[in-house]
Amino acid sequence: MNAVTDILKSMEYGPAPEDPAIVTDWLKRHRQGFGHFIDGAFTPPSSLFDVANPASGKVIARISQGSEKDVDAAVAAARRAQPKWAALPGHERAKYLYALARHVQQHARFLAVLETIDNGKPIRESRDIDIPLVARHFYHHAGWAEILADEFPGAAPHGVCGQIIPWNFPLLMLAWKIAPALAAGNTVVLKPAEYTPLTALGFAEIASEVGLPKGVLNIVTGDGGTGAALVDHRDIDKIAFTGSTEVGRIIRRRTAGSGKGLTLELGGKSPFIVFADADLDAAAEGVVDSIWFNQGQVCCAGSRILVAETVAAELEKRLRQRLGKLITGDPLDKSTDLGPIVHPVQLDRIRMLVEKGVAEGAKLFQGTAPEGCFFPPTLATEVEPASILASEEIFGPVVTLTPFRTPNDAVDLANNTRYGLAASVWSENINLAIDVAAKVKAGVIWINGANTFDAGAGFGGYRESGFGREGGREGMAAYLRHPAPKARRPEEQPAAPVATPTDAIATAGIDRTAKLSIGGKQARPDSGYSYAVLGAKGQPVGLAGLGNRKDIRNAVEAARKAGGWGAQTGHNRAQVLYYLAENLSARAGDFAERLKSFGKAGAAARTEVETAIRRIFWYAAQADKFDGAVHQTKSAYVTLAMNEPLGVVGIACPTAFPLLGFVSLVLPAVAMGNRVVAVPSQTHPLAATDFYQLLDTSDVPGGVVNIVTGERDVLMKTLAGHDDVEAVWYFGTGAGAKMVEEISAGNLKQTWTEDGAARDWTGPRGQGRQFLFRATQVKNIWVPYGE
Amino acid sequence: MTADILSSSATAGPTARAGANDNRNPGMPLRPEMFLAHAVNRNAAERRTASLTARRSVKKAWQAAWLVNAISCIDLTTLSGDDTAERVRRLCAKARHPLAPHIVEGLGIADMDLTTGAVCVYPTMVPHAVRALKGSRIPVASVATGFPTGLMPLPLKLEEIRYAVGEGAGEIDIVITREHVLNGNWTALYDEIAAMREACGAAHLKTILATGDLKTLRNVYSASMVAMQAGADFIKTSTGKEGVNATLPVGLVMVRALRDYGDATGYRIGFKPAGGMRTAKAALNWQFLMKEELGNDWLSPGLFRLGASSMLADIERQLDHFVTGRYAASSRHALA
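Predict the joint structure of the above. Result:
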């Protein structure tokens, strides 16, 4: 007997280790510790903490804990470098990004092995998935740098970007952050995760190797304290964060009112929907690529299998068979499917959640895993929607399986989550698959696939999975801004409404009562109070309802029910809106009179009405033209980037331009299919309340535009805190903007805040595609083809 | 049932022979519902096979053993217009001694009498092969039924099978009428293969689907299932003469079909990729596919064959390197 004849009997794979010698030598050369990479050079190591290889638990490097001073120095370096970097021709920035792509490829194995040692992901994944995607991302964005001026006319970089990335795809997340930022002309201070900072530091060496100008890229290592210093830094223009929803919420609150740009790519609990006509073997393998990829430490992992009852048993059988073949172990072994969990803290969390799930009645089927920081691939059945395993992001190799009855049932279960990052839909029926893809609330949908990524497609979530996109045109847009208008005199807080009887109101005819408009019906304010609306000389010109939180609640409920509006064709919406303009035109005189009663000069009043009519036409025109795109991604995929409405949008209108301000904000929202709860000009709401009669006569379905008059900031506080509102636009005071941004963190609404006096609503900046981008979110649907 | 098959620990290895699968598939009545509604997604199949070959790796002694195992599963093949008795004799000599003596020594496998799984030739070459392999346990496989296109009247096809069997072929690699698949004429396909199975008698029937002509993976799945229902012992991808021959996605679909057939009937069907496989790496990849999708039992020649000719030379070079530590030259190895 010898080795070969023994192996012929067992036909086992045997060890197939990747040799890490070159990387371990590199780590040895840095045994005194790593400093930060600031202004083109490494700082002396200081305040060191240990970084371990999760597979062995052994310390492999010592890393500097970034202090506020370090962050200061890095931001200052980035600030110094930014004007020159942004002023470079796009071609010059493209050459640097191209060089980064090439050098990532030339150091591909170094980066792959280092990533595996630091993070624990199997070498197959770092070698075949992470690093090639990193190179692809830099190539793609070298291209954006080259053509930026042509493709994004008028756009400018934010300036200095603070970027905080997680430990699950350390280098890939670095690439997703850095490549678009640099392409756009921003400079960067990036903080890698404290568990996995090494490839970022290796990348800093590569940046030096290609001669990236100093200060353009700065890397400060450290824990959450370092990240907080970065988030709070006054000289940062934009924060981009990928990580947990919990931390994302904190960042949203801390940046509220600061004027910093913000994009968040957060957690998920993504559904994996399998219909009865699917290729079940393919779906089972899709689960492997979903949740048993990177040990399930994937924000977009399909962690909830929803399967048609008729094939649930069959799929479960195949999953058990497949799970039994998975190899969990040494991540440097080329035959390893699952490596260790990144850190014992995470392992404990996974164990705790799984134990709770079992206590709630879940049944587990598990593979095997070695001793140490490993968790076996796990299939959990008999998991109810309320179970912790079905609702919490586990961030481990644990998937639940729940049967459904009908497609509607599947969609309801899929959307029964706070998150909305990704989804997989498995069916051979294209009608069904695309129908479900359209109905699932998620930023990325893979049909008959899972975890497919490409720099050419946008990635990012709906709901509490965050906002902003990475990759594709929409990802580039997230690192560009259109210089926001500045107010010469900021809008002042309007006086508190006076809700007691007032002086005589001069009226020409029969007394008119302005009510709220909720669900297509005129509604008296719940409070039972009205407040005086004053004319130019302070004389009362009418009364408006004093709306309160219950009116907002009712309005949101009505808006939620009017979901059919977004499902209509753009043509249908356009018809309704054109009709609205027609009816406004027919009553132009009345509206001008109303505006004059607020103190507008006759000509100004007529101009405001005329502009409003044209603006309604413009958005009616856009209703069926603001198209999505088909992205160039991988072969045999049509990657559809669809502009979808946000859902229910709360809108606070500026004080000035009582009609045009209202029309300019409400129209883009409803043209794109959103439903709106609008709080019109607090001081002059009657132009908006007149408007609801137009809505009725123009066949705008009830609930699409709801109008609640009253004290703006009080009403917006309720709207910003309402968990069933997807976005809030606030045009008012700085204090109000800060309040809205802070409170919106509850369900991580998209927000758009601006000084109410900043924009000239009568001019070209009163309308445009920027409004439509704000009114939509991009859903990327990956449709494979080939028979 | 599949679970039982997969958990079976029956040892694989070169000592097994084609006849090891004695519990022959008797076939069953044509049952289209076993394949007509079956979904096969091409993108997913391609993704699976691309990842599968990157998910598994064998090194050093393990790689050597896996390559030795591959040799035991090779149907060493010559199917050329210029085949002669001498050419076949030389091929058979290689089949008997697929590795140079120093490699056999170096691997320590002298005792196991390593041979290829079979020798595969045209019907008229069967007598030469039988003579050349006399005294070995290597079966002679003959292609038949109007190979490679199969466009020949059925009675002549059956007669060709009977001829090859009569000359001593232990295995018959038949080709199907692709038209039946392309037209969805499952009954005709079933009847044709069932008749061929009958003509084979004790010889094992390997059904070549010519998947390169069938084009779609659904066609591949359906044809696989019909062939097994009609009594095929093996299903085989290609003649080697189609534009596209053995590919892993096609193989994946076929092994899943034979797994499903096994689940439904309890009978184990063999699988043979053929055509276009030239490298040792391909031999490993196909074995990874078998082990991962079906289990170790499908790593033995009773249930798995590699239809190849030049693959053996590459395997021999790799094994020479394993034994000597030096990269090898083909000129130092006996020609097949």
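The two ends of chain A are 49 Å apart (CA to CA).
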